[in-house]
Design brief:
By secondary structure, the chain is α/β, with parallel strands linked by helices. It has 18 helices and 21 strands. The strands form 4 sheets. The chain has a 7-stranded mixed beta sheet, with no helix packed on it. Strands 3-5-7-9-11-13 form a 6-stranded parallel beta sheet, with no helix packed on it. It has a 6-stranded antiparallel beta sheet with strand order 14-18-19-17-16-15, sandwiched between helices. It binds 2-acetamido-2-deoxy-beta-D-glucopyranose (4 copies). One 2-acetamido-2-deoxy-beta-D-glucopyranose is lined by residues 145-146, 149, 240, 244.
């Protein structure tokens, strides 16, 4: 907490932020060792798994990371991310000492003989838990209502225990929950209402559960009070989260509620605050654009109405704007940030000069009271994401278009990394930030904006990486180090390439047989030598199999777990261009990068060489 609050006073200074992060890396070390020592003492280990593996006579930083069942944030730092002690025959009570593993996000104690009740303050022991698996033990008593305070939970597995009583209805308020399994217990009463219909639930083999898909509960007047409980709990949870987990949490909740507001029918309420500011001029970088005032932007976006929203992302909400003369723009309302107006202005000045064929041009900006609005050139063919995952009936992109988009986007990002001065790390690459102009030429949007966001908000959403929205794209080391690097962008870009060639969504693969994100799925297919099965069926059998496979290999190199093994963006660009670039006539005159032509033969060698280096 000391560390976190010091961030709050320093986040406006980016450098300080980075310094503090590096301090953060050693934070928690002693406590995590103590955590494991105490767990080892408190838990009975008849098969002596822990006795042999958990040897504390070692001073090497990161030594506990090689312990059985331990996964650290960094292999050279004693800080636990996950603890997986399944099927070890462990006995005793739920290990409360877990509280000192203060950065833990995953706990798996399944398949043991643990008994007693689940602690009724479980969420104060596991503040950041995203996956909790206590299945196949002998836990008894009730499921604690407190579990609903673990707001990051993605997965709860309590199946095959002896749990009794009602399932706390407040669990229905868990916003990120994807898996909820309480089968094979002795539970009774109403099941919670998960707001998101896609939650995978299992209530089988209990004593008498009802409600929802299980059928109406017998009338006993309890359902009314249930609704009140849920409503009250929702309010309570928000308040407590803000107070209890400190200011970091406040920022987060704030972000979430901000998004909710945006979806509200009265979503443009915030524009009321702009009344007195309508005459403010939009500062323009391009002389070709006719002069604009805030009032013009308001008119052009229908007062920033909900129906004009094109997309909402981490950096803000984008509105479609059409001026009186018919010219179209995109206006981005930036997410609130603590950066001063001066910092914002200097950032804008820099971004206004960043111009490249594969970047969405920033035409101007406007600061009105607390609002910061950016005006961009319109991109008629919208987000690549929507073209790759079209609504039913719409057609998707063919292979040459996908290859062309990949090459153009790689070129834009390579330019940001290698040519632009100062270099820009994007940090938010996804198929939602690749926009398509009238000729389906890809243009990267959102570059340079991540720096304007609150580091804290970015930090937290990264820590919770996993099943958080678009975060199928986030490089694994980013969640650990919190330092943005070009290789982090390469990972996200590689995920986007995988999306292009497989047609699957990065956050979760739409297969019944596989639960996990796209990169994990590809890793599994690679292990089983089934990588060819990953390719989008609509693309195969068109005499381009060789290209598809080469493309897939480039993508796989980009998502290599170790940043060192990933190519640079300039290499990615060259590799992609070499795949059929000549055949499709993509090579463009205006090469900004120092490129030497590599033929198809060299490409294979390059990939092999890269793999050899691993
Ligand atoms: C372990 O956790 C307890 C309870 O939060 C705390 O009082 C104690 O200081 C922690 N120990 C260490 C070494 O951090
Ligand atoms: C200490 O831990 C490191 C890292 O796991 C390991 O390489 C080394 O062999 C260990 N030393 C002893 C004395 O166990
Ligand atoms: C968590 O939930 C419980 C209800 O079991 C409540 O009493 C408690 O104050 C909550 N704690 C926090 C920190 O939100
Ligand atoms: C769950 O939702 C349904 C329909 O949305 C509603 O009828 C029911 O009362 C809700 N249950 C609870 C416990 O709120």
């Amino acid at each position: 907490m000391v560390l976190l609050s010091s961030w709050i006073f320093n986040f406006h200074v980016f450098v300080t932020f980075l310094l503090l992060i590096s301090c953060g890396i050693t934070y928690g070390t002693e406590t995590d060792i103590l955590c494991l020592k105490n767990i080892k003492i408190s838990i009975q280990d008849p098969n002596k798994f822990l006795t042999s593996s958990w040897n504390f006579n070692n001073n090497t930083e990161g030594y506990i990371c090689s312990f059985y069942g331990v996964e650290c944030w960094h292999s050279n730092e004693n800080k636990l991310m996950k603890l997986e002690l399944s099927n070890m025959g462990l006995k005793g009570q739920f290990p409360r000492d877990i509280i000192n593993c203060s950065s833990l996000t995953g706990l798996d104690l399944s398949g043991n003989d643990l008994s007693g009740s689940i602690p009724d303050d479980i969420c104060s022991l596991l503040k950041f838990v995203t996956t909790l698996d206590l299945s196949s033990n002998a836990f008894s008593g009730e499921i604690p209502d407190n579990l609903a305070n673990c707001t990051y939970l993605n997965s709860i597995k309590l199946n095959q225990n002896r749990l009794t009583g009602q399932i706390p209805l407040r669990l229905g308020t868990l916003a990120r929950i994807k898996t909820f399994d309480v089968s094979d217990n002795l539970l009774t009463g109403q099941i919670p209402n998960f707001t998101d219909g896609t939650v995978s639930v299992n209530y089988a083999n209990n004593q008498g559960l009802c409600g929802g898909s299980l059928g109406v509960c017998k009338a006993n007047g309890s359902s009314k009070s249930n609704t009140a409980v849920i409503a009250g709990a929702a309010v309570g949870a928000v308040t407590l989260a803000a107070l209890g987990l400190g200011i970091v949490m406040f920022f987060f909740v704030h972000r979430v509620s901000y998004r909710k507001k945006e979806e509200d029918p009265e979503g443009n309420k915030w524009t009321k605050g702009l009344k007195g500011a309508k005459a403010i001029k939009v500062s323009l970088f391009e002389k070709s654009v006719s002069k604009m005032k805030l009032s013009d932007l308001m008119k052009a976006t229908n007062n920033f109405s909900k129906s004009n929203i094109i997309g909402t992302g981490r950096t803000g909400t984008v509105y479609n704007a059409t001026l009186n003369d018919g010219t179209a723009y995109m206006v981005k309302r930036l997410q609130e940030s603590q950066h001063s107006e001066k910092e914002f202005m200097s950032e804008m000045e820099m971004l206004g000069t960043v111009k490249h064929r594969n970047l969405v041009p920033l035409l101007g900006f406007c600061v009105a009271k607390k609002e910061r609005l950016l005006v961009f050139k319109n991109m008629p063919n919208g987000m690549l994401h929507d073209r790759l995952h079209p609504a039913a009936g719409e057609c998707t992109l063919d292979w040459p278009s996908r290859l062309k988009i990949a090459i153009g986007a790689a070129k834009g990002l390579a330019w940001l990394h290698h040519t632009c001065n100062p270099r820009i790390i994007h940090r938010n690459i996804s198929s939602k930030c690749i926009l398509l102009d009238a000729d389906f030429e890809p243009k990267i949007s959102d570059f340079g904006l991540a720096r304007l966001m609150n580091p804290l908000a970015t930090h937290l959403s990264t820590v919770i990486n996993g099943e958080f929205g678009d975060f199928g794209y986030v490089a694994p080391e980013y969640a650990k180090t919190l330092v943005a690097t070009p290789k982090g962008d390469v990972f996200s870009f590689g995920t986007m390439l995988l999306e292009l060639v497989t047609g699957e969504s990065p956050a979760n693969v739409a297969l019944q047989t596989f639960k996990g994100n796209l990169v994990e799925w590809i890793a599994e297919l690679t292990n089983n030598s089934e990588l060819h099965n990953a390719i989008d069926e609509s693309l195969v059998d068109k005499s381009n199999n060789n290209e598809l496979f080469q493309f897939l290999k480039v993508a796989c190199n980009c998502v290599s777990p170790s940043p060192k093994e990933r190519p640079t963006m300039s290499e990615v660009y060259q590799l992609l261009r070499a795949i059929g670039g000549n055949k499709y006539n993509f090579t463009t005159e205006d090469e900004i990068l120092v490129t030497e032509d590599i033929g198809d033969n060299n490409l294979e060698e390059l990939i092999v060489a890269r793999e050899g280096n691993n």
